[in-house]
């Protein structure tokens, strides 16, 4: 991904982040969720799999995406009906065939351990990979990179120091990024102000009182509720200076307590996903994947710059790592 971005900057003076990132995500998620490499199935799928997922996602999301212009035509022609499946049927069948052929181990595990049918497993794996993981990370990770590339507070220097201290020249892993408190806090703070899925809906299963700091609201069974996470994450009684981005907000003991109030995945960051709470089942892997991206970035670059259109326009390659000189600098 970074090589592709470097080549674009050298050629055109800038590079789009989204499409190289999505191509990377398709391969990464296929390997981590399905246990399969798209390139071993088909070089064509490795190149175009992310585009197939984009089209499939667009077909599902377009009827509900807010578009401010061309009203009321948008409501009449885009938001009034669901779109026919045949528009993406060929792509969808290629993706399910890829999972069926290359994901035999995880399919057998689902059949043996959970009693799921082969067909149900294949379609659920594609939905988790394409809608939940790929769709969510395609929204969140560009925001993360954009915040880094437009920051002028010295955040890049602080993150790079922590990454090099913990990893040196070794390849970052899910294990090593767990020991990077500032990197994790930066990811948490980005999620606080930019939740990938800001609106959550649900029907009340029973009568109950919904309590805030100074009021209570009666909710009746069957009533439809909508939660706007971004608004909840700006509660001044919980978060100091809530509308300002503080990358180290979740560092230290006080920061760990705040994780009880960090709702970006339909539940607190300290909670555990279950079928009853509908919390993001991949919440932990989302955090670690984002931290991994930051760690890789600062092993490759000393700094980067993003323009107003969201394109990377400059990236200073990292100097060769010297563990002895870095150790002396860090102690000083």
Query: How many angstroms does the end-to-end distance come to?
Result: 35 Å
- Radius of gyration, in angstroms, nearest whole number: 22 Å
Range of helix content: 40-55%
- Could you tell me the number of beta strands? 6
The 3D shape can be described as: globular
> Which sheet architecture does the biggest sheet show?
2 strands, antiparallel
Alpha-beta classification = mainly alpha
Tally of alpha and pi helices: 15
| Assembly of the depicted chains | single chain
Order of H and E elements: HHHHHHHHHHHEEEEHHHEEH
Mean model confidence by pLDDT: 91
Unreliable stretches covering 5 or more consecutive residues? 324-332
Beta-strand content bin: 5-15%
With strands numbered from the N-terminus, the spatial order across the biggest sheet is 1-4
Describe the structure.
A hairpin with a 4-residue loop joins β2 (208-211) and β3. The protein has helices at 2-12, 18-34, 38-41, 43-61, 73-77, 89-102, 104-114, 118-150, 155-167, 174-177, 181-193, 229-232, 252-258, 283-300, 323-331, and strands at 199-203, 208-211, 216-219, 224-228, 301-306, 312-317. It has 332 residues and is mainly alpha-helical. It has a domain at 17-138. The longest helix is centred in the middle third of the chain and has 33 residues, at 118-150.
């Amino acid at each position: 991904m970074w090589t592709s971005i470097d080549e674009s900057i050298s050629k055109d003076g800038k590079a789009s982040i989204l499409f190289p990132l999505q191509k990377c995500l398709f391969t990464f998620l296929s390997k981590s969720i399905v246990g399969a490499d798209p390139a071993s199935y088909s070089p064509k799928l490795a190149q175009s799999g992310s585009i197939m997922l984009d089209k499939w996602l667009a077909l599902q999301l377009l009827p509900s995406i807010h578009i401010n212009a061309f009203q009321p035509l948008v409501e009449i022609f885009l938001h009034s009906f669901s779109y026919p499946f045949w528009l993406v049927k060929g792509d969808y069948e290629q993706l399910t065939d890829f999972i069926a052929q290359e994901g035999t181990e995880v399919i057998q595990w689902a059949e043996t351990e959970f009693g799921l049918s082969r067909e149900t497993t294949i379609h659920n794996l594609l939905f988790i990979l394409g809608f939940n993981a790929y769709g969510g990370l395609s929204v969140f990770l560009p925001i993360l990179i954009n915040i880094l590339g437009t920051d002028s507070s010295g955040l890049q220097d602080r993150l790079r120091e922590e990454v090099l201290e913990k990893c040196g020249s070794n390849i970052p892993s899910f294990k090593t990024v767990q020991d990077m408190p500032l990197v994790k806090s930066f990811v948490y703070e980005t999620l606080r102000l930019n939740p990938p899925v800001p609106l959550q809906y649900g029907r009340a299963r029973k009568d109950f009182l919904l309590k805030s700091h100074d009021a209570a609201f009666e909710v009746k069974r069957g009533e439809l509720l909508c939660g706007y996470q971004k608004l909840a994450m700006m509660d001044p009684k919980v978060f100091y200076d809530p509308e300002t981005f503080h990358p180290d907000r979740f560092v230290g003991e006080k920061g760990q307590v705040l994780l009880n109030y960090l709702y970006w995945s339909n539940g607190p960051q300290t909670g555990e996903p279950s079928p009853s709470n509908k919390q993001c089942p991949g919440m932990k892997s989302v955090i670690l994947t984002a931290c991994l991206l930051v760690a890789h970035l600062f092993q490759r670059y000393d700094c980067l710059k993003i323009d107003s259109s969201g394109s990377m326009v400059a990236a200073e390659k990292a100097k060769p790592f010297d563990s002895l000189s870095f150790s002396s600098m860090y102690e000083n």
